[in-house]
Amino acid sequence: MKTQVFGLLVFIALLSCSSTANASRLTSEFFGNFVAADTKNAGTKWAVLVAGSTGWGNYRHQADVCHAYQVLKKAGLNDENIIVFMYDDIAYNENNPRPGIIINKPNGEDVYHGVPKDYTGENVTANNFYAAVLGDKSNLTGGSGKVVNSGPDDYIFIYYTDHGGPGVIEMPGQPIFADDLNRVLLKKHTANAYKNMVFYLEACESGSMFEGLLPSNARIYATTASNATEDSWAEYCPGYGAPEEYGTCLGDLYSISWLEDCDVQDLRSWTLEQQYVAVRKRTLEGTKFNGSSHVKEYGDQSFSGNFLSVYMGSNPPSISPSPEPCPSLSPPTSPSPSPISSPPLTVVPQRDADLVHLHHKMRTSPLGSQDLLEAQKQLNDELNHRQHLEHSINKIGDILFGFENNFQVLKNVRPAGQPLVDDWSCLKKLVGVYEKYCGSLATYGLKYMRDFANICNAGVTADQMVLASIHACS
Predict the structure, then answer these.
(1) Which DSSP helix (H) or strand (E) runs through 252?
(2) Cα–Cα dist 395/434, whole Å
(3) Going by C-beta distance under 8 Å and a sequence separation of 6 or more, which residues neighbour residue 299?
(4) How high is the pLDDT of residue 405?
(5) Cα distances (angstroms) measured from residue 394 to each of 49, 177, 190
(6) For residue 323, what is the DSSP state?
(7) Active site residue: 66, 67, 204, 357, which one?
(8) What is the pLDDT of residues 236-269, one digit of tens each?
(9) How many CA atoms lie within 13 A of 154 on its CB side?
(10) d(C-alpha 420, C-alpha 181), whole Å
(11) What SS3 class is residue 110?
């Protein structure tokens, strides 16, 4: 009882810092945070962290996830409530200049130590991810068996970092399509298995995973590294900040923006909305000379005034930031800027980060060495693959719609608020047809998912797609 009275007095004192005009809004917003932070009333905090890629060239995704684990662990989440998906082929990779150590920024601390190995290697799959989120142990294949066994008073935080394309994000084995992801999230909602859920997503065109699909009344708040049509960006890359000996990008811009923000903030007084604004600003500034990436919000924004501690843990920071008058009471529509440092002006589109890695390997390998020959072959293979994709998909468009209409149909972007495609089963079927007759899309080919979606939206049948694919790729 004394604790509650003391908390109420603190609440009243903080209100005295605000203007009368803002008192009503601040009362509602702060009281919501006060109740949510009360350990007697708050449910269990759960987290699912996913890096869906493999290989040294994708080092940054697993580094991002390991860093996220350290943020949550430092803030007080228990390992039993943190579920980690990562292939785990980076820490002891032959290319790692510091075996057993992963860093997420130049000269950064080791973020690999202590990370749970829940789902690694061949157990990093879409189906295991779905089962873990849904708390469905019966549908798991391998791994630790850890799932989100949450109830109606619990809070769930999901962070996913990887390559992507319109309506799709990558995962070893099979990708995750936007309709399947939202189906799983809404099934969790229907089961009344959480109070609020927060989802952070890093991938190219990541906004398309929620655009027109995630409703505003399911208690799910999502932010994405880009809108539905833009690349996301790799950060701390060779030649642009990464130590030469790594030869690969160490992080992703959106990801390191929210992670480094958490590193310097007191999560107990920094809101989801404040972090969104800070991350959006840093991400856009980091890409404005190279392209653009607009961090976006989706879903239920009614609780974006919640403190990060509600989802990430409420331990006090090791070093408290300098006190400011009423820092947590700034209006959510224009939060105070975060003190996270501005990134270098040169970043790399995620899809081209592997090219940067291969160019670096060629530049640093001895003339005539096996490493040089392998890097040259890998680069040539990748460039040939990209050329094949561009040629074959354009040829299919010419066959189906004619040369004059091809570009207009394939590259059409629907208005904001509409999903990528009307019939997701059609999209998956046509992608399967293409891969059967023309070869795998692989990572880079995900960028053409909008082309396939527009072929579906135009009413093309699977039989028509078979004929066009055979003609284009024979």
Answers:
(1) strand 251-252
(2) 12
(3) 199, 210, 214, 215, 216, 218, 220, 221, 222
(4) 95
(5) 37, 23, 42
(6) P
(7) 204
(8) 999 887 888 999 999 999 999 999 999 999 999 9
(9) 21
(10) 14
(11) coil
* Average model confidence (pLDDT) across the chain: 88
For residues 173 and 130, is the Cβ–Cβ distance under 8 A? no
The residue assigned the tokens 């007759």 is 437
Q: Which of 338-342, 344-348, 422-426 has the lowest mean pLDDT?
A: 338-342
CB distance 253 to 235 below 8 Å: yes
Number of residues that make up the chain: 474
Which of left, alpha, beta for 374 (phi over 0: left; psi -120 to 50: alpha)? alpha
> What contacts 24+ positions apart, CB below 8 Å, involve 139-148?
143/118, 143/119, 144/116, 144/117, 144/118, 144/119, 146/80, 146/83, 146/116, 146/118, 147/83, 148/46, 148/48, 148/83, 148/188, 148/193
pTM of the shown model: 0.88
85 falls in which pLDDT band (50, 70, 90)?
very high
Among residues 61, 163, 357, 360, the one annotated as catalytic is: 163
Rounded to the nearest 10°, the torsion over CA 134, 136, 141, 142 is: 90
Select from 216, 140, 213 the least CA-distant residue to 183. Answer: 213
User: 62 near 52, Cβ under 8 Å?
Assistant: no
Mean pLDDT, residues 138-159 taken together: 98
163 assigned to active site: yes
* pLDDT tens column, 305-334: 999 999 999 888 765 443 333 333 233 333
Give me Rg for the CA atoms of the chain: 23
Q: What angle do CA 190, 195, 201 make, to 5 degrees?
A: 85
Per DSSP bridges, beta strands 45-51 and 155-161 are: parallel
Closest by Cα among 73, 447, 109, 375 to 250: 109
Alpha-carbon distance values, 370 to 193, 301, 377, 422, 465 (Å): 54, 53, 11, 49, 42
Residue 307: its H or E element: none
- Burial label, 341 (beta-carbon count in 10 A; 0-12, 13-18, 19+): exposed
pLDDT band at 211 (very low <50, low <70, confident <90, very high): very high
Catalytic: 204?
A: yes
Cα 414 to chain centroid distance, Å, stands at: 23
Q: Which residues pair with 161 in a beta bridge?
A: 51, 202
61-81: per-residue pLDDT in tens? 999 999 999 999 999 999 999
Q: Are residues 160 and 202 in contact, defined by beta-carbon separation less than 8 angstroms?
A: yes
Which two tokens mark 99? 């075996």
Residue type, 408: Q
